Structures are given as structure tokens and as C-alpha cells.
């Protein structure tokens, strides 16, 4: 996926917003069709049944003709995927989450799935029914471009994303092995002894965010001033997101470039943020994004990525396997059996590496962290 910032003119912005509005209307219409069909006839409409109604819809609503046909077809695909995910969650016994109608300004992207777009030689993107839009082409898109998605950010900025089909770029083989223990005091501790400091981007921006939110709360609801000031609040959140993404991308790239086998904790972050005392700090640390990027980069580079059960990795000696209770306030692991003294997180990262290697069948020297009781 390659994403670029685009700078449409005022006329093009108007066309882009009109396209989003037509897609939003169609999305709600197709959702209403499915809902009504099931309630009245007990049948669920298919993707192709809904797409077959588009010619008649264009006669009833001529403004749909101003949108590329494949963009409209993609709206039906999104509805179909939403219902497939809904039924999958029901089958799995999860909370269903029925697809919802999209309110004003709640539909912020549309996709050209096959055609209707092109990149010109002067680094502009040509969009059917919209025009040639200036694009900051900061790096070449590798591979064959398949789809093009136009996205409107909450700050009013516009972006274009291209999904491509390409061969993975394998890195040279590396014999280094690393275990990674994530935390709040230190973002990550590697089994090599290296530590990655926790930048705490949200904590650093809390005062700025509180200031703009206080001003926003004093503005009259529904007024143009409040609607305009919403972008100021969104800009602070966007700044936090950009810094956090840059941090996780850089560190995940560094680890993949210098390690052949990467062992991490298989954390359930969604459950961990139920702890109200630590929820904000855990969300700010963005462990899920870090692990996701690490996994994707490792797969593309041909590295081995292993996620292990983190239970007792902080309470077990990485040298002899002795287990003892360790309150969070105790930051040094002092083993009474082999008398080794290690930083708590470093000890955990060594255990994570040993468990990962044991799972791969490369080593049987992992400490007995899961003995039968």
C-alpha cells in the first residue's frame, strides 16, 4: 500500500465531497434494501442482486451518474463485506454489531477497484469525473497498481492510497535472534540488552488537547464556529497519530533489519485496557500497531516471527527456571537459586526468546515456565 497527499483545487474539492455524499446515500439505500428485504420476505439480498438495481437507481437519482460506475459498485461490495463480517461474528458467538447507517460527514472514502484512475508523468493523479489532482509523489509505487482509494481526513486533508501487487523484498539472511518484552516504563526491552524508550506521545500532548477541547466545548452546538473548530481538535489527534506511527515504523524496521528470528509476547491488548488505571498508558504505547507492523515487515523480509504466551515470563528466572512472585513495583529479578540479578524486563525478554526458539524446535533450553501443577 502506498499513500500520498493530494492537493485538489476548490472545484475538485467540491466534486470530491459530492462523490462522497452520493456514495453515502447509496450505502444507506443498499443497507435499507437489505434490512427491508429480510424483514418482509425473510431473504437477504446478494451483492449482485443489489448491483443489478443501479441502472434503475440512476434514472431515479440522476446525480449518481456523476460518479464513476466502479466506485458505485465498490459501495455495494462494502455493504456485502459488512454483512459477511456481521454473520461471521454471530457464528463465532461474538457481539454481532449490525451494520449502521452513515450520517452526514460519516462517509470519508471511495475506491476505484480496477479503472478510472492513472498517474501522469508530472506526478498528478487523474481521477475519472473529478480531474487531474496535484499529488506529492514522494516515493515510487513498486509493483502493479490494482486499486485507488481517495480518503478525506478529519482535518480536511485529502489522501490517495494505491494497493499494489508486487514481489516481496527479501533481506539477506541474519543469524541474530531477539526476544522482545514490551512495557510502560520502557516501550520495549530486547534480549540483547537494548532498550527502546517509551515516547508517551499522548501524555506530552494532553495539555494542548485539553486546551482546544475546553474552547470547543464552549462553542454553540451546531454553529459554524464549532464545526470549524472541530478541525483544530482533530489536528492535535492527527499530530499524535503521525508521531506514533513514525515511531513504531522506524523501530519495527530496525528490529527486522538486524534480526533473523523475532519472538514477541502474544498480548490481548483489548482486554488489558479494561484496567482503568493503566488504560490510557497502554493505548498510548500502541503495542498492537507495533506488533502488527513487526509481523508484516518480518513476513515480507523473510524473517521468522513468533508470538508466545507471556504468562510467568517476568516471574521465572531465565537462567535456572526458578519461579517467584514479582509485584510490578519490583524492577529487578533476584534469583535465590542461581543468584543471578537481571532487570525485570530483560529477564522476561530472554524467557520470551527461549520460548520462541523452543516453539520452533531450535532449542530445548527454555526454562520450565509452564510446569504442570
From TrEMBL:
Q: What does the UniProt keyword field contain?
A: DNA recombination, DNA-binding, Metal-binding, Transposition, Zinc
The UniProt record lists the Cas12f1-like TNB domain at 287-352
Keyword Zinc annotated: yes
Q: Which residues form the Transposase putative helix-turn-helix domain?
A: 2-43
Please give the InterPro entries that the UniProt record associates with this protein: Cas12f1-like_TNB, RNA-guided_DNA_endo/Transpos, Transposase, Transposase_put_HTH
Pfam families from the UniProt entry: Cas12f1-like_TNB, HTH_OrfB_IS605, OrfB_IS605
State the superkingdom. Answer: Bacteria
Domain Probable transposase IS891/IS1136/IS1341 intervals: 162-273
UniProt record similarity statement: In the C-terminal section; belongs to the transposase 35 family. In the N-terminal section; belongs to the transposase 2 family.
- Name of the protein in question: Transposase
Q: Which organism is it from?
A: Ktedonobacter robiniae
| Phylogenetic lineage | Bacteria, Bacillati, Chloroflexota, Ktedonobacteria, Ktedonobacterales
